[in-house]
Amino acid sequence: MQTTADEVLIARIAGGDRLAMQVLFARHHVRVYRFVLRLVRNEATAEDLISEVFLDVWRQAGKFEGRSAVSTWMLSIARFKALSALRRRQDDELDEETAERIEDHADDPETALAKKDKGALLRQCLTALSAEHREVIDLVYYHEKSVDEVAEITGIPGATVKTRMFYARKKLSELLKQQGIDRGWP
Amino acid sequence: MNTNEKEAPIGDIEALLPWHAAGTLSRSDARRVEQALARDPELARRYALVREELGETIHLN
């Protein structure tokens, strides 16, 4: 089956084509939702923001110049909205939620089971990374964004993108070491 | 910005490993990384760690 390129969909959306909007939404909303959820760490907020992101896409499709991939453009919009939402959120509320999400190092049955599975442990450590580090890892590994695309989405220089990715991975290794897995790096 | 991000530069090739694993490098950079991996066993071992991270990140999402 032949799929319509994102750029073509955007051109149609700019012309008011609702079906094209539905196709674009179906194609990207899960990835964009997960990206936003990592940042705001609240499902209801993430769902609200996704609606706003796609509303912006609908309204701004005519301004899309094709200088980056459509998915990169949408992630940029999503990131801006997520950070704005975080700024609006009360600091104490954020701290409370963040504290709740910091993993308990005690060996409850679930943790003990996870320790038997290196992959599960690695995933557990990924969730314990800071939002900044998790963001760059998700953009590179899951969203398959190049250095330049991550730089565009996050608004930092390409060299800093590489450094941030390095330190995110280094932190991941440190967390694994705390859990008893020494990867011999860094 | 994290203060660590201002520290000493990381090896050029090593810094590219995550993008090589994700398949998002330019053809010339990918070739440079492939050549380095072929001649450096330690780099190849670290690349295996990167691929592991990539797999689990996708699994997590």
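qc> Chain B touches chain A at residues 1-2, 4-5, 7, 9-10, 14-16, 18-19, 21-25, 45-46, 49-50, 52-61 (CB under 8 Å).
qc> done
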